[in-house]
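step 4 of 6: structure.
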Amino acid sequence: MNLLEKLDASAAARKALLPDGVGAFGIPIEEVYSATEARIGDRRVLLLGTNNYLGLTFAPECIRAAHEAIDKEGTGTTGSRMANGSYFGHRALEREFADFYQCSYGIVFTTGYQANLGTISGLVGPGDTVLIDGDSHASIYDGCILSGADIIRFKHNDMADMEKRLRRLGSRVETTLIIAEGIYSMLGDQAPLAEIVKLKNAYNCILLLDEAHSLGVLGETGQGLVEKTGLLKEVDFITGTFSKSLCSIGGFCVSNHPQLEQLRYVSHPYIFTASPSPATIASTRAALELLRKGNHLRKQLWNNCTQLYSCFKETGYTLGPDPGPVIAVILDTPQQALLLWQKLLEHNIYVNLILPPAAPEGKSLVRCSVNAAHTAEQMTYVGNTFSKLYSVVCSNR
Amino acid sequence: MTESNYDEIMQLLCDRLSSLTNSGTQITPETNLISQLSIDSIKLLNLIMEIEDTFDVSVPINALTDVQTVRELADLVHKIKSAS
Ligand SMILES: Cc1ncc(COP(=O)(O)O)c(C=O)c1O
């Protein structure tokens, strides 16, 4: 098989999952009306599959800041942070993230994906070990691969399994980085951080926590799982993204270890890419401010989450283990998931369709995500529609 | 580590692989994991976890880049086990 034929084979495998003409992946959103509504084709749909947890995509403060930045600094930086791409705003945002996490050091990356790539590949290298949760995001896997370190997986959120693997490493634990996530993006469950910290301390490793989905969502001021559990000081490195609750694009890493600064000189995903645009940085700074004082938004978000989670549960759907902004509806087969996804779209509700092997353990999911801007009427409509579709989709149960 | 341990590793791999694949292919040491068995990456990674537990070793998943056949996988596990 030549290179192009290999791609044809993988396209054929994808087509076998999805019938012709069903564009479930990368479906174009033609117009965006608000944080909760958009047009897909000729339908006005309710958005229940974004990562816009605090509903800030149209926050006037962020839009104004982005406009002003474009007017003052132009559309792009045209260069790397290492060269001509370090502006005042990048430095300011780094300080603001460090301050937010009560840390001494902060680095901004161009995407959250690169924040993980850049941090992991900067921290570990060939001969070192990374011990990662089996359900880790692709950016974590890719960062580990880029680093050249030995990659060991533990069973998702299974602390006995993690300890077993730590023990097996013997003296290698000294150069081991443990990686977990605040909220896992597919099933919406949280890492058992207290137990992870206990093991990390017992074995004297370094811990990195990716708060991509938990930033803005967990904790009094929205720091994430570190704040909810009171374990901020126990985590060595925190990474996260601007692309979810902060509604722009970019990523960060914060730490109290001064060695974080060295990443600016060794980390390719930081150096060999252009820095985030001025508008991106400006809107992110405004959004971070809103996020920090956004307790009312978190309250609204969690009201919506718990309402929808219990409504789905009562209807009989199988769900991810924890209620939260990511609600994974687990179906028995890919066909069922596709049917539910299609029927929801017919009812003007957009959710994410996740088919194997993207979801853990070969599961097929309809991944819903709730945000603070969803109204009570919208939540009721979603709940009723899922109830109505249960017997259509899950007729085998 | 002895020959019988190698055989034990090979036997376990063949047993587990035949239950993981639905291609009905007869599994031999020369069977290619991806092109012949169509084992998807997640299944392969989970199999590695099982192997680690059965033989009480750490098998880094990045070492799999050099593994194409069942024999190469058995060699890798055997090498790690012998060094431990
Ligand atoms: C857990 C996790 N980490 C990192 C990322 C990458 O973030 P970004 O979209 O900023 O590249 C994502 C988002 O897809 C994610 O879910």
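step 5 of 6: annotate
 - The pocket of pyridoxal-5'-phosphate is lined by residues A 111-113, 116, 137, 139, 181, 185, 210, 212-213, 241, 243, 251 (CB under 6 Å).
 - The mean pLDDT of chain A is 95.
step 6 of 6: archive
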